[in-house]
Backbone:
């Protein structure tokens, strides 16, 4: 099922009653989610991603704009008629019901010609339980399960009524680090097997990068970029996305373009054909630095951290706008430790330029 | 050092131990003794033997039997009714936003008022005198029914007033507890149910009710205990001579045996209070067993 | 669900809206109805208290407003019966009982929460088991004890059996224990005595709970009836509850209902005022620890 959001906007009255202006949680949201994909809604907390999810589920009504499932306009449809499956951050499993009772709960709500016999419900529950691999816990109560198992039950409950769209709100945030890795693979597998269009909300970029088919990056209620994970990393459309994605984070500098050359400080570090003169923000990914005795960018060396295969060089430069420049190089290329200065040349496709006013990406031709 | 420390702990506890020892532990032993002492004379503080006579006497006393009957009627009518109405009101309160706090505050008002004092007002509202029919009777007349003397009239009318007043008195506590229990049910459960298309009735029956069931059982258990000890509400409506009004309760019987017109018999009072304790204890145990079966998490 | 037409959707939405507003209205009507039942006795009590004796008795069908309000009944309430005496007695009884109870409770709670001594756990278990003992059981012996000590019709007789409350000790102990033990250790290292730590640290930190207990005890004292009735038979030591019964049975003569209502208003007023000021705290305190009914 395709999901289309058209000019979706959500305003809340300000909590501080003295301020008359509404808080805009979601601002003119516009995108299309293709059928059968796994989509990560990514952004810092408070950026409106949960609100967006709630509007898709029908728990909240948009202030303006429309929501389509396929060709159906579902904007005014109450949650119960939308046929969405929703997994809550804290799972919201009914503590007084067993796993089986929790899973068949949505089926028991069906009315009219959709009504199912008890046998059919049990069979359906067994089927999804098998899919999420919790078949042996069907008679336990949620409190007797681990966090990861509860998560699977919650997904099973959302899947059992064959939803048109599956929504997950921070599905991994309540799990410990090891379980998180395991569960995110699990979510991906389940999504592949069922083929249901799935949207999940997360503030964890790694989570989003690792399992989504597409990532939607949000900030302050606005859509920043929507792309394939690698695309969002390699080709960010604005300064925010560049800074938000990537660990270690991108290194940023104040730079100037003069005569199609990029200057950081006084030294021209890169040719940037096709870019107009002016001040720019420069972002350089950690892997974009090459140690080079004759390189154009000179930094003060602070520390060299060897981490097995890779070495990370911590240095500083007067024009940097981050706390420290962190570059990652292969360990065999690492400079002698007694240096106080280190020189780099740059990989052009790891250098990103942004307009100082609009923070939009400025493209240049790479030779 | 450690001995000194130990002493200090007991020193801090001393006042509490003294008070509790004198006015709770000792009386507890004493009351059992009293109940078996036959022919106790209050003036000379002597008795002539031990036995079950006091219990026999009490169990054959028509006043006691009347008191037991009245008490059971109060319990059976007021506990389920007050809990049910309180649940309804709390559900209503939880579903609204404007005025919610005002309603909550108003509903709680009876809790802080002197039940004896307000009982007088109830008496006036229900009483039929030579001068006035009383407001409630006028209301009944306007509905085409004939007047009833609720205070000195037929038994059922007196029971009605008594139960009505009892419910009025216990309601604030129950509404308060249930409203906070309902507010404590996480919103996510309701959202999850809504997304799954659960009907309102089913949400209530399958989610809300089980989630607040521990609190409901708590209210039922404390409600039973409280209703079995009914006394001052009855005094408030019918006056101190409850035997004459035929409205005495078990606790009232105990106090009357101790003091008042038929007073001066601590042995009978002790026997009656132990019987009451046995009844309350049994019913509480039964309640706990039932609640264990039904409260599921 | 894909087969729902636009008209169907509109119908669904409309139905939800209509049934929503109908149930809202019904809810408000029912809630208001119960509010009236709760408030009506109070209204009636105030109304009757400002009607003159003659106008009250001449109204066969009582009026819902007082056409000629008077305060005469309030004078009567204070002059015909000794209402001010009952009132003062109750104030003294309430303050003394609450104060002594608080000291006893704080000391015991502190001992259980922070001090180490031999036999602490078993003593606490005995305390807890005392919570199950109904007052009705122990009142008999207490009555005999107080009579034998010749304390009937004295404040000591009224107060002494009412000062120990296992429940409040338990409640306060739980609260004391939630204060991090590091604070106690830090105080010890600084050479603070136990008593000073209790007064300067524990009590201020647990002020909300202590105030809750105070308020609950004040309400309990102000409304207590059974025990005062047992140990007082002289007017000099009547509390308001006994006073009310006295007024009802012998006071103004059975017919002077307006004066009776004036007395009832006077007696109810202090707690109602207390409630109006502290209603949030009282309700919170009761839902945490109070019981009644």
Residues:
């Amino acid at each position: 099922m395709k999901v289309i959001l058209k000019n979706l906007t959500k305003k809340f009255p300000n909590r501080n009653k003295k301020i008359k202006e509404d808080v805009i949680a979601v601002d003119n949201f516009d995108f299309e989610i293709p059928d059968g994909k796994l989509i990560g809604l990514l952004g810092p907390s408070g950026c409106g991603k949960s609100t967006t999810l709630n509007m898709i589920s029908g728990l909240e009504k948009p202030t303006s704009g429309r929501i389509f499932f396929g060709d159906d306009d579902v904007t005014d449809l109450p949650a119960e008629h939308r046929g969405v499956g929703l997994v809550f951050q804290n799972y919201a499993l009914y503590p007084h019901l067993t796993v089986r009772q929790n899973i068949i709960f949505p089926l028991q709500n069906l009315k009219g010609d959709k009504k199912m016999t008890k046998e059919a419900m049990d069979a359906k529950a067994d089927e999804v339980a098998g899919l999420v691999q919790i078949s042996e816990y069907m008679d336990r109560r949620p409190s007797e399960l681990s966090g990861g198992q509860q998560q699977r039950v919650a997904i099973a409950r959302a899947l059992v009524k064959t939803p048109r769209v599956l929504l997950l709100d921070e599905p991994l945030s309540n799990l410990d680090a090891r379980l998180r890795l395991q569960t995110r693979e699990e979510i991906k597998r389940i999504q592949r097997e069922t083929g249901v269009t799935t949207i999940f909300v997360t503030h964890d970029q790694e989570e989003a990068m690792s399992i989504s088919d597409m990532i939607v990056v949000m900030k302050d209620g606005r859509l920043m970029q929507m792309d394939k994970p690698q695309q969002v990393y390699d080709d960010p459309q604005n300064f925010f996305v560049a800074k938000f994605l990537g660990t270690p984070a991108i290194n940023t500098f104040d730079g100037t373009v003069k005569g199609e050359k990029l200057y950081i400080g006084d030294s021209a570090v890169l040719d940037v054909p096709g870019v107009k003169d002016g001040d720019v923000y420069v972002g350089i990914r950690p892997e974009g630095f090459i140690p080079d005795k004759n390189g154009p960018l000179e930094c003060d060396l602070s520390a060299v951290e060897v981490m097995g295969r890779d070495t990370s060089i911590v240095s500083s430069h007067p024009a940097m706008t981050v706390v420290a420049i962190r570059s990652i190089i292969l360990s065999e290329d690492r400079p002698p430790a007694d240096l106080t200065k280190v020189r780099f040349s740059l990989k052009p496709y790891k250098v990103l330029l942004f307009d100082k006013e609009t923070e939009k990406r400025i493209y240049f031709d790479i030779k | 050092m450690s001995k000194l420390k130990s002493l200090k702990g007991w020193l801090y506890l001393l006042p509490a131990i003294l008070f509790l020892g004198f006015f709770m532990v000792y009386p507890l032993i004493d009351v059992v003794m009293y109940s078996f002492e036959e022919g106790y004379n209050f003036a000379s503080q002597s008795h002539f033997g031990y036995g079950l006579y006091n219990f026999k006497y009490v169990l054959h006393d028509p006043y006691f039997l009347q008191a037991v009957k009245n008490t059971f009627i109060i319990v059976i009518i007021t506990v389920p009714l007050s809990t049910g109405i309180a649940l309804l009101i709390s559900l209503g309160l939880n579903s609204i936003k404007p005025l919610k706090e005002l309603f909550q505050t108003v509903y709680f008002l009876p809790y802080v008022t002197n039940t004896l004092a307000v009982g007088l007002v109830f008496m006036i509202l229900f009483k039929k005198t030579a001068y006035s029919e009383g407001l409630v009777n006028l209301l009944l007349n306007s509905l085409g029914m004939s007047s009833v003397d609720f205070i000195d009239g037929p038994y059922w009318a007196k029971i009605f007033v008594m139960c009505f007043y009892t419910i009025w008195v216990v309601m604030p506590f129950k509404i308060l507890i249930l409203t906070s229990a309902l507010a404590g049910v996480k919103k996510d459960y309701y959202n999850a149910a809504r997304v799954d298309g659960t009907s309102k009735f089913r949400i209530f029956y399958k989610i809300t009710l089980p989630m607040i069931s521990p609190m409901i059982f708590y209210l039922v258990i404390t409600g039973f205990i409280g209703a079995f000890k009914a006394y001052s509400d009855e005094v408030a409506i019918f006056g101190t001579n409850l035997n004459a009004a035929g409205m005495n309760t078990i606790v009232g019987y105990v106090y009357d045996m101790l003091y008042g017109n038929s007073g001066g018999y601590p042995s009978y009072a002790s026997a009656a209070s132990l019987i009451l304790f046995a009844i309350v204890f049994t019913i509480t145990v039964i309640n706990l067993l039932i609640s264990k079966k039904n409260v599921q998490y | 669900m894909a087969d729902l037409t636009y008209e169907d959707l509109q119908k669904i939405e409309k139905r939800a809206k209509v049934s929503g507003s109908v149930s809202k209205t019904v809810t408000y009507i029912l809630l208001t109805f119960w509010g009236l039942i709760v408030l009506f006795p109070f209204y009636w009590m105030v109304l009757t208290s400002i009607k003159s004796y003659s106008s009250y008795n001449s109204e066969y069908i009582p009026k819902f407003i007082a056409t000629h309000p008077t305060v005469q009944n309030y004078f009567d309430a204070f002059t015909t019966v000794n209402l001010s005496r009952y009132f003062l007695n109750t104030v003294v009884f309430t303050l003394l009982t609450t104060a002594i109870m608080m000291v006893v409770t704080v000391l015991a709670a502190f001992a259980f929460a922070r001090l180490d001594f031999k036999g602490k756990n078993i003593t606490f278990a005995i305390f807890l088991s005392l919570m199950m003992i109904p007052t009705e059981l122990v009142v008999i012996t207490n009555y005999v004890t107080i009579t034998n000590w010749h304390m009937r019709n004295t404040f000591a007789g009224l107060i002494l059996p009412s000062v120990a409350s296992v429940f409040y000790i338990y409640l306060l102990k739980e609260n004391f224990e939630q204060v991090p033990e590091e604070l106690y250790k830090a105080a010890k290292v600084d050479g603070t005595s136990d008593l000073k730590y209790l007064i300067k640290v524990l009590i201020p930190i647990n002020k909300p709970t202590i105030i809750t207990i105070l308020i609950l005890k004040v309400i309990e004292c102000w409304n207590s009836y059974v025990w005062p009735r047992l140990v007082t038979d002289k007017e000099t030591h009547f509390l308001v509850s006994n006073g009310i019964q006295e007024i009802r049975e012998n006071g103004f003569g059975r017919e002077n209902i307006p004066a009776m209502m004036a007395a009832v208003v006077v007696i109810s007023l202090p707690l109602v005022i207390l409630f109006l000021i502290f209603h949030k705290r009282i309700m919170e305190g009761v839902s945490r620890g109070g019981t009644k009914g």
